[in-house]
Structures
1.
Amino acid sequence: MKNEEIKALALALLHANSETEVIAVLAAAGYWDNPTAWRLCGDLDGNFATVGNQQARPEGALVEKIVNSVDARLLNECLVRGIDPESESAPRSIRHAIAVLFDGRPQDSNDEGTIADWSQRKQLEEARQITLAITGNKPRQGMPCITIADKGEGQSPSRFPDTFLSMHKSNKLRIKFVQGKFNMGGTGALKFCGRNSLQLIISRRNPKIVEQSKDKTNQLAAANNRDDEWGVTIVRRERPTEAAGQVRNSVFKYLAPIHSGEAMNEVLSFKSATLPIFPEDNRPYVREAAHGSLIKLFEYDTKGFGSQALMKGGLLSRLEALLPQIALPVRVHECRDYRGEEARSFANSLVGLTVRLGENRGDNLEDGYPSSSSFVVRQEKMTAQIYAFKNNKAESYRTNEGIIFAINGQSHGAIPKTFFERSKVKMGRLAKSLLIVIDCTNMSVGAREDLFMNSRDRLSNGELRKQIEEELEHIVCHHTGLRELRERRRSEEIASRLEESKPLESILDSILKTSPTLSRLFILGQRLNRPERADSESQTDGGGQGATEGGGLFEPKPDPTYFHFFKKKYGERLVRSAEIDRRCRIKFQTDAQNDYFERGHMPGRYEIDVIDGPLEGADLSHSVTIHNGIANWSVNLPDDQVDVGDQLLIQCTVTDDTMLEPFVNLAHITIVPREESSTSTKKGARTSNASGGETGAGGTGTSGRDGNSRAPGSTTSGGITLPQITEVKRNDPLWVANDFDDATACKVIEDGDEGQSSYTFYINVDNVYLKTEMKETDADVAIEKTKFIWANVLIGLALLHDAKTHASSERASNIEDNDENETVFSRIDRTTRALGPFLIPMIDHLGAITEDDVVHLAQRGDDE
């Protein structure tokens, strides 16, 4: 084929929007049915094993394509400067590469770059260098095509087999400032592309890089005589065929019709100064580029996304959740023919979830958020960005994720939002409003291998994951700001519903008391009129604003002027106790900003050292969270390495690059026996000590409790006290807040602090089965409704009691089975939903059984 014919073929494939069109173009050129024109991807006959073992979902596979484009942009900026990407003079990390290559900072700078610091103008300019365009079919018509183009380094035609079409080669393994490592993640998208897995590739090497690669004689090597041309190929899947009674696996091949003697077939190429690979507004393939790469995925699976890519629940918001801290922005273009309301915007920039939320343009976050926390597990340092959304705002930014683990801005796995419902977390009331992003970029390679799968879309189930989850449980459960938010929302709800729930609770009280079995299972308590504050010693006023040491309005500083134990002078040693097998929590006062340890520019650093005692020199897991002037430092003292009576001298050090001397605080800790239940302490004996911890009987300092009054429905060592019961109707805001539908029967939320729990039961009194029974019955409809409510509450209490009894074995089973979504609360929802149609008939008919019925049934059994 001549140059213009090959270019025309490339453009015809580029503008095709279905597999049928692609096959027709290739068939007309004589390639589709010609087996000699196709070459195995990776030159591996068993390449389906690699392709088929990639990401589990289409959006995760698509992310890999975007990450490859980001890598290409970073490599391009490095190579045009004549820097060997694998050399010591190359950037040491992705964020360092942003600082040096895009922000113009010195090579020896310690600063890290992030697009969060860029102006919107600069974000837009750079986003235009990596684009994603959606073309072709709209929902209900079929699957669309997705095209990703970048103005990166590009690849020459001869390099295609070793880059785009290779597998398991170490192309990027020794480059520190790119994401790709395993040379296989980009193939994961193929299995989500239509029946034939068609993927178009067009690329041209940056001429400046080609010029630098010439040898001393200024002549290109013979093998590289097409380096200034655009290469073009298309990947397809050949499905299994039966031959001689055997069935083989699918294989992936790419178009390589050029034969050159004994060498492997090569891809087509053509000369062209530029090529229209970029979109403008809703017009694809109109903006010219002199180099770069284009990947087009035909009939890509987008069933899980909203109809319009830029609208709520669309592809853009999904990608931002999976690329929460993306290194470079991407411009997303909706190029399908939407009209009317859905055509309000043709393009928007993908800047990552953390940047999007940090700007908070839509006023989506609660005041004071995002908050952050730093923690160390097995010497691996991580940071957590905690986002608390206003009611019903979170679902625009995530689906089922509760905690996202990211490396270099890309999600590598997530824990679902049911995490916040766990009994060790007790943030079920905020579960729909919370999202946490964990930055694992600084993890060692070995830890990454232990925590993440190579597909970079899910977590491994191992000991490291377990320890990280335990640390996160503690951070979230004891986060001062989250506890205040939870109790504020709870108080607002109770204030409006307190009186209407009393009759139901009185009747339930009598049911439990009159049943010998239930009386043994549950402790019946009195309901408080108002829940107590989450932290009685919080140094905040009613608006959540902290206070200074002198009692004035708290004004955080970028460089703290003090960091010392709570209610102690700097230099004064803290003397306290810690219960064995519980975490030791130490409270500090500071004027540091909330993100002091997590910010990108000159962050604070923290260390904890045991300088005397059994754990001297040990590496301890610990976390630090600053919230409005209070820093909570939590330390895990391994119970298998300390005994009751041991004494430890712990040094807590805080410093940053602006300090002449660090802040150093010493704590003398004595290990005491674990107090199994707070009920064992006499009423009134618990007081707060100067450190912000507590003292029990005999003045023994403890960790793990806050000394608050017991909330309604709280658990004790003997059972569950009376819960709060709330009726929910269709027009009630709680219907939407708790994801009710017609079949929902009962949902339960847990509140409380460590060592105690309180439960709120939400009963759907507009349940479709209840409404049917009320419509058809001749009895009092109020009685039917009350039966439904009582039955659901008793079922919920039964499941709570069962979960409480088998808590440890249940958690171990869930981890082993990877059943992360199933909690006792989701089980209550699922069980009561299933029983909804049967509850009232069962109560009516079983309750109507008489002695005569029993005798009659017994006689029938004897006769048979």
2.
Amino acid sequence: MKSGFVAILGRPNAGKSTLLNALTGEKVAIVTAKPQTTRNRIAGVVEVPAKKKVHPAAQIVFVDTPGVHKPASQLDRRMLQEVHEELETRDVVLVLIDASRRVQLEASGEPGQAHQRKSSNWASEDEFLFSLIKGLDCPVFLVLTKIDLVAKDVLLPLIETLTKQYSFAEVVPVSARKKDGLDILVRKIVDALPVGERFYPSDQYTDQPMRFMVAELIRERILVETGEEVPYASAVVIERFEEPPADEPRKKNAKLPLTRIAAAIYCERDGQKAILIGKGGAKLKEIGTGARKQIESLLGTRVFLELHVIVEPNWRESRPFVDSLDWRRQLEAMTKKEDQRD
């Protein structure tokens, strides 16, 4: 058997989360049209059955990282740190490039690059993305996404431009939406992985606890339902998560058991709070209704969801607050509290 960790790297809106969900067949990561939707490393586990004379059985742990972009806040710096940490513990790296988007690379001869370099100490974000993989000692695949949105004669020049920047182990065009090219991608990844044992049980598809997935579904509705700066200034923390007893008897034709959830939505200014709540609480109700439906689908229970909005001025620049949003830290804090009670 083969097994290993595969880091998914790309700029915002490269289709990383869409690809992760398509590969796992589950909604592991939230997806919206807004950039910087992914804030944390999210693992999706894929069991690959053996295929005679093609490849052995494998367990692939795909890790979706935050989109690579210029950090402008403590939150952004934390997201970039997540990227660096994942690159230190990987067996294969996938570099995702949106085939439908103009790529900005110095070597590509794209117009406007000289002006961009004069106006910023950074190169283009595409160049920064490529700088992250320089010196890696593992196979790096170039994965061209959203190929269903471009003509085929556009792909070859794009591949030629990108392969001048790095000697990729493989180049795989895919469309996650149409599930085109995914089988080829999985097969090539299995070929590149080392022999090993499973990292997770065969029926587990993510490393995320349900509490975190619920918080992300609420944040997804905020991203969808609000505009301007509000989605980026919002964070969600689960304050109460009461599951029904696992051994609760079910009567015939009885209602599904009930999960009670309370969550706080943090924002930075009173004006943002007003937008999140809406006139007469209408916007908050829309967010809650949309999130509750998704959460019920995830948990397989009825859900009673309470939401309230808290203003935490300039939280994106507060390292302690940003660190507290990491679900791994939240689990550590919960474990300590439980140990203290015992």
3.
Amino acid sequence: MQHITKILFILLFLVSKNLIFSQNTGYDNFLSVVAPPPAFHNEPNGFKSFLVTTNGYDNFYLGVDFGEPYVATNPRDPLNSVCAFNMNSFYYTVDGYNWTRNSPLFIGYSTLGDPVVCFDSLGNCYYLQLYQNGNAYGLVIEKSTNKGVSWIGPYGCSSTTVGLSDKEWIIADQTSGPYSNYLYAGWRQFGGSGGMKFIRSTNGGVNWSSPLSIPGSQGAYVSVGPNGSIPGGSVYFACQNGSAESVCRSTDGGQSFSAQVTAASPSGPGVICAGRYTVKNCIRTDAFPRMAVDNSYTSTRGNVYIVYAANPPGPDNADIFLVRSTDYGQTWSTPVRVNDDNTTTDQWMPSVSVDRNGKIYICWYDSRLDPANNLLTNLYGTTSTDGGLTFTQNNPISDVSFNPNSMAVGQPGGENYIGDYIGISAIGNTSYSAWMDGRNSSLGSYTGFYPDFAMTTSISSKNMVNNDSSFIIVKIPSIKGPFTGSVKFTASLDSLPLSGNINISFLNGRDSLTTYPDSVTVRVKTTGSVTPRLYKLSILGRGTNGVPAHNRNVDLLINVSSVSIGTDRNGTCDFKINGITYNTRQQLILQNTSVITVQAVSPHTLPTFQYVYTHWSDAGDTTHIINITGNITVTAFYKVQYKLLLNSLVGNSFGGNVFYDSAQSFSFGVLSRHVTYNGDPYVFKGWTGTGSGSYTSPDSSGNDTAITMSMTNPVLETARWFTLIGIQNISSEIPKEYKLYQNYPNPFNPSTFINFDIIKSGNVKIILYDILGREIRTVINETIQPGKFRVSLNADNLASGVYFYKITTAEFTDVKKMLLIK
């Protein structure tokens, strides 16, 4: 929360200094440090990735972060990749498919985000962040010599007291040339002279050069390539400079740069919203250059590639384009469109990488599956093997479509944020992409392979006994993208039995595939008396150089069974297994021939409803024994009962404060309309019901002493009783006419008297109304003999104001006004 407050403070500070303006098409005064939502939190260190499999393809869910990923792969180990997300979320994998969060502390530096990562040729990993210490802004780096497992540093890379540093990039020279393992970084600088900055380190990030200034407005990107026969002899710096994609080159290890060259002049992608280029529901994007250089020893060696999003001519909002240079960035090709959808839907936020064989990998966000162009989006990918002249058929990398608006975070400028860049890292015959994904309506962090193969198993669990055999078909049903090469499978158990043997083998020794679709068969054989337990069989498929990598687990229940015990009211109703109480379903692995005792606990009573046991799914008694002979699922079923809460001042009621089955017909009521309570006479006037489906009397006659109804939720019924003690016969004289007298005293507080004359025996009602004509109270509703009477009215529970009282008989009606003043 302190970090969030700090970022908001920075935003306010920059506004006060007139450093934040609406972005124009030249990206002047563009700020990318963003404010997380109030409930934002990073996953904790040690957090493990989850496998999300769709039709045999895997996406790896790393958690919820704040977007802006970058990914890199160890040149010495294709199974070791790292990625980082805002604000400080670093993840690593050492087996190619399990990711672990391990973010360094950057002790002494308050990091602001925009993380980027790279490896040098020795396999050292570098993790670069923006920081703010008081009025000083800059870049800070940490180093890992063991694949991202632990950290050395931090080392300050740059510092300025002028203004915020923004959107840095980093690259390492992985060649064996004269600048081998030099680190190069670039960023946008606010304040002072502003513009783009570049620095280098010649000693593994410990010390850094003074910044070089390079013209530009935003989108710094650095890459390394050859200079003729000199490996790593060219360092390229690309950025947005006005509306141009500009590139300059260094041939002396980053000490100086040539004049900038325009690689392209695109029209920004999407539409202008809140002063920025946006797509969808004002989700911000950009046309910044993403760059990669071919360091292979093929015919395309030295080619420089820039990809960007832009609006093509016509109605299309955004496409992905590539330009290339074959002469070290001096001249550039005509833009080639990368996406092959031929629709007017949005494509934006690309990333590019080139492998050691010269193959180009590109990924981007793509909405082609949604013709309306306002909801569904996937991460798409493609490759090129001819230096960017043509591209393979595009394919989705993300296996589930998502709505970017469901993860967008509103920003102070009015635009919405899902991150400003994504990452891709080429690994031989495949690549690893890292992106933000809204499939769970959050800024989910994901990685995935492209090209890739799907992997399925014929079963996910198998019960076996001693001296038994089972066969598992492992299939590659399809491939994604131009996947080539073989897939080799291995199978292993999580542990070995203490007695007996479990033999795992591939049928006919065939453990690899080279054509698709195809399958191999794993044979599991038990010999001897195998220790009873659940064994996890892990089946791992790897591409030619170890990736793509996909793992499938099969549960081997050897001499044991899977037993599931619970209720249909999971988390609410209790049950017992061998005397131990639970209220959530229990998944047990029990040895065959064992015995357990289960018991349903009933009722489970809450204040206004309860659950009552009805039966077990196996037709057993409330408490009964289960003999374990195989997998079984047993459920205790409960019915719901709702409570009728009945309030009656004088008692004399029936059917209340009882639980009834849902929709069951029942009766409640009062035993008599007239009762004496504490020596005073009372008359029943009806019911006031509370709750859905409750009963409320339509009038105050009191004739509905008994009611029949049913309930589907708890209700409260309150009996309305009125005392008759206020009616007094004040004269034996028989009046000659009906009459209603003015109450006295009037105004009154809180009691007053109402006199009236009755000339014939019959029903008499006096009803009190408020000034809006709403019935407030029935003062009397009785059969009265002829005479002169007085009734008292107590208004303790009424508010001050004007009220009306009305007398009604078979032959007479009159209304008068009274005033209550408190």
